[in-house]
Amino acid sequence: MRSNAKAVVDNTISSDQLNTGELLTGQLPKLDGSGWVATNYSVLEQRSVNDSNSFLKQLRKKAFECFSKTGLPSKKNEDWKYTDTKRITQEKFSPAHPRPIDIEALKIQLGGIVPSKRVVFVNGVFAQALSTLADSPVTVRSLAEILDARSDRDRDSFLTHFGKHALMAEHPLVAWNTAFLQDGLFLHIPKGEVVRTPIHVIFLSTCDQEHTVSYPRLLIMVEAGGKGAIVEHHVCLRHGCALNVVVSEIVLEEGARLDHYKLQMENKESYHLASTHIRQETRSRYSNFVLSGGGALVRNEIHPVLGGIEADCVLSGLTVADEKQHIDHYTVIDHAAPHCTSDEHFKGIYNNHAVGVFNGTIIVREGAQKTNAFQKNDSLLLSPDAEVNARPQLKIWADDVKCTHGATIGQLDEEALYYLCSRGIDSVAAKRMLVHAFSGVIMNRIGDDSLRSFFQQFVDKRLEASV
Amino acid sequence: MEQAFLPEDLYQDVLLDHHQHPRNFRKLPVFDSCSEGKNPLCGDTIKLYLKVNNGIIEDIGFEGTGCVISKASASLMTEAVKGKSTVEAQKIFEQFHQFLMKPQEDETVADQLGDLSAFSGVRAFPVRVKCASLAWHALKAALQGEGKQISTE
Description:
Chain A has about 475 residues and is of the alpha/beta class. Chain A has helices at about 35-45, 55-70, 85-90, 105-110, 145-150, 155-160, 170-180, 415-420, 425-445, 450-465, and strands at about 95, 120, 125, 140, 185-190, 200-205, 210-215, 215-220, 225-235, 240-250, 255-265, 270-280, 285-290, 295-305, 310-320, 325-335, 340-350, 355-365, 370-380, 385-395, 400-410. With about 150 residues, chain B is of the alpha+beta class. Classes of the chains: A alpha/beta (about 475), B alpha+beta (about 150).
């Protein structure tokens, strides 16, 4: 009897199922300098040497091998042309450890109110004491539980999708995150279930030690006809540098809907590298709204794949950056089916020496006829030292489509400012009024009134400090 | 507008003089064109009369009520354009307008404008720009023979 060495045994994953895909060609440099990532990995490997969870070990090993080949891309890589990752590769980061946190401390970071429906992660690890998980039939759990137990009830759905949409071989951030996979969010909305209140997923970095790194992972599945909303918070408890490498996989079945809000508000010393991969089936709807105001270096990637007809994707972003912040939004919307619609609008306000980047690509595959794609990027420079790099791209292989895109970079209109001053409004208030109006277009894309007010208070606070 | 401007900078002696003793402050017995102007923000009103001969502003007069700035501006304007050609008057209008809104790098414009440069304080108080320019807008309307009432709005 011939045994198939690659057969699935128990719950371990074969290398086929890991779906590593094809290796990237091109000149991607290896990790240089300190090699702190490799050091951290071997420590992790050592720690789990007696662990019986061979599935997780194998997964991490494969991911680490993948990441070692490419490392974190440098500016020589076209997709990272405007974002220098040297300060991350050359600094040394050590794993963050979970800490007991008081709910009151959390309250301050979240704008004064602690949401009633919340899942809290402290330094990347699920904090039961701070969370109030949703009731069934929606499943809201810590990924660690599913990773640990072999016969977990959600294991099957987890295996069906995990690593299938965020491909390690194509995305270094995904490989990196998977190599250190520990915990994260598992959210499953069953068929036809409508979740009326948003679920808040809070990622808190304590920053009590300098230069810590966490690897939050999210896996969200919405079955056919299911609807829900999540608010993803990234905040820091105090000053200090924390690195978060966040990867999300989101699957929307036929007619499913997910409204995804992200509040990216870490302190200005921290780093945020995120890669979100969405698979949309027929008539599904995905909206993503991101408010980027924190972080020293931010790379926010969104990769929606419109895989079924009449799927709809709405991406909105507002960046408020000052001092020496560097915020890079990188999106690739893939129209892989006909009759799909996408609407993308990102705006940014940049002061002092802030740098903004917008890389927006729309792919329309062969056969994706009647595609209707809209993309706009507008940036407001408030100082002569602020800088913006906008690179909209269209890659179209179908001939019956509608794709519009536009990028603008400008300053406040002197005449408009003067107009307000001649009406008795002082120059600071006049400036704030115009900046507020500029951001209003994006804020109005938040459908839910209470969520809009929630985000507005963060925008107002951020603008007050900056303008 | 970083410099601290005091009210004294706005109300220079020249302006106060022209407010208390406005020049050409009468309706012309004979005139070719007239115009009316209002500044709703401040309540200033002006009625302007022009006598133009061969493209030269032979005579000019005004009536109206308003703040110090608007009255002084009207008075100084009549002095500045009386005897000048309509083309020159237009040019002075544009120069003055620019002067009111933007800080000037060099003093040459101020020199050319003569007494009109007394309005330099308006640059620090943009809310008064409409008071200072009302008379000039009325002049422009009269020269262009628009006939209808102008407003600073």
